[in-house]
């Protein structure tokens, strides 16, 4: 033990010595006593209990608790030496092989009946899972960890690395627990009592070495509460600060453009559109900036709601801008809004309405002369509604009076962009973020918790149903051929189709697809647009007019392809996920997604929303080599079984790692958010949200709760706070 007190900030080398601390720092990023203290066990096993061997994924680094069942040594055929194969498992019949090359001496200690921890990477050999040369620790032998460390009822299995197995971490934790001065408990005693939470000191000790299952469960509840409360306090504080900022009110005006637009609309608003429209109109009328998330299914009419909000701002003397994630989508939004507004959006033209505003498109691909003209319209205020990409926030684009920013499908619209916007206006503008990706309640509460949330659940009348089917190429190749016949049949009826591939071409880094979230083991490179399109033109779709669209095409070429497709000059568009968001061609009725198992659930739902947008029904065919019963196939079957985006969003959440949702994967840095599950802890998160609202209303900066403020800062570091703000 060191002479000075050991606190969470003490370097580990002062606690463990440089030799023991170095691998923890290099392999696991554990530098301080606090890092190790909050490096919680991945799970807790009991002697005699089995690990779920059947659930192990190929490529996963695992530690399993198992018993040696059988040992066999044999001469290798391809090279000199012996292969030692050890079968380990449990009493339920689940087993996995351990293989050791030229290490026959291990047969003396790996004898049938012995229990131990075995750590290594899961590999596949001829359809059988195995661990090659794993590290292990047997319980009834002398080892670097005293037998007493594992003599209790529980074995704590830690997230480990190849050079730092779980038993090494357990030994380091044991040393730490004997010397550390635990941090002050940040939660007020009244709050702990109200929610039945144990003290922080006890929770941190029980999570590493629980006395029993009840103590472990109580420790987990307390530490999850800390994580949820820290995130919710951060979001609620941000929300309160945002609503206290000044903004120019943009109230409705009788007889204005919005009222005129409502009168010329060829269809009635849905009940949901009317309700959300009222929420937004009320927000725009307040002297504080609106920060609202509008989520709704593909085709629910979000753009129409946004146009009405933009017209309200124009009526109040301001300008509105719609930011799209790609130039293709920006150009399409410009065309779509122009059609909606008609003469109301053509100020200065011969057929314009006397009270019209001007709709202007600003993208990086504009020519120099057109760009100067567009920027002049923006700067003078002549352009009441501006459409473009995020380039609008920079590059010397000046607004006369920016009142509203609408962000389409840009979930991580955050700190830098908001700072850039504030520089464009005398006061912060109102912000509306739109997404067609349905968001589960706990994700909305945790990732988008600083925004007010509106939901458009209704689809407008006249939208056609979309049928989805899995095409199992490996099992039923005849179905694959039938898919292309269906494409031809739709074209013969006068309709159009999409073929979607995960990749652009053969070059590395050409993927335009989110990786699957369920550990699917893809054996070959994904199919690519530039490889598939020529084959379709020569074989399956010979004679049809085929276009190609992907993210690496120059902007003017992308726009030309989309215009040709929208005009009906192309029968089939072979594309990457560049068509995933916002592309609207009502005549497209069929989509074939190749290597569909390479796409995430939400991505597939977004993609199929490109068909069935007119009066004819849509058809989406999900082609896959994934076999029945595999995680990838189960995922595709689920997508095919429902068009309810919220059901699929919950499925997506189940299959994602929590870090992907909460931002740990994005930051690349250590985070103490370890235990909270957005799927399993919905009630706890809601409780933490409610308590955070009460506390922040009473003490906005937590000045009367310094320990709690410090705890929030430790759990939600600056980079994570920035990630959360980007909601």
UniProtKB/TrEMBL annotation:
Transmembrane segments: none annotated. It comes from the Bacteria. Residues 283-456 form the Helicase ATP-binding domain. SUPFAM superfamilies: Nucleic acid-binding proteins, P-loop containing nucleoside triphosphate hydrolases. Keywords: ATP-binding, DNA damage, DNA repair, DNA-binding, Helicase, Hydrolase, Nucleotide-binding. One of its GO terms (molecular function) is DNA helicase activity. Residues 479-654 form the Helicase C-terminal domain. PANTHER family: ATP-DEPENDENT DNA HELICASE HOMOLOG RECG, CHLOROPLASTIC (PTHR47964:SF1). This is Probable DNA 3'-5' helicase RecG. It comes from Catenuloplanes nepalensis.
